[in-house]
């Protein structure tokens, strides 16, 4: 379940994807399958191959992409991988907003 995010942020993420960008969206999240994590970053792109190429920089596998019929396919990033990629991509705003550096 997602929370701590506004509809406008979701719409901005979708708009960025629609414009051909690799887009980042971080929000609070609860999932019984991953009880140790309380945030997720969705990294999406309209073109699957573009997303695959981007993911290769971080050893992300194609099969980890959530393929969506609505065009907003994405990787879900959790934990240390989430933090490392956000640092590498210069997304310090995501890190500070969700206090991701406090668990380091």
Structure commentary:
- The chain is of the alpha+beta class and 104 residues long.
- It has one domain.
- The protein has four helices and four strands, in the order βαββαβαα.
- It has helices spanning 7-18, 48-56, 79-88, 92-97, and strands at 2-3, 23-29, 39-44, 74-77.
- It has a four-stranded antiparallel beta sheet.
- The model has no long low-confidence stretch (mean pLDDT 93).
Describe this structure in a few short sentences.
The chain has 104 residues and is an alpha+beta fold. Helix content is 36%, strand content 18%. The two termini are 24 Å apart.
SSE map:
Elements: E1 2-3, H1 7-18, E2 23-29, E3 39-44, H2 48-56, E4 74-77, H3 79-88, H4 92-97
Protein name: YneQ
Organism: Jeotgalibacillus soli
């Amino acid at each position: 379940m997602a929370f701590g995010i506004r509809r406008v942020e979701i719409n901005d993420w979708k708009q960025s994807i629609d414009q051909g960008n690799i887009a980042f969206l971080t929000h609070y999240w609860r999932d019984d399958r991953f009880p140790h994590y309380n945030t997720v970053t969705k990294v999406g792109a309209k073109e699957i191959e573009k997303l695959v190429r981007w993911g290769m920089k971080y050893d992300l596998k194609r099969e980890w992409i959530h393929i969506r019929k609505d065009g907003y396919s994405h990787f879900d990033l959790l934990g240390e991988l989430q933090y490392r990629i956000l640092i590498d991509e210069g997304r310090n705003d995501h890190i500070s907003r969700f206090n991701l550096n406090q668990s380091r």
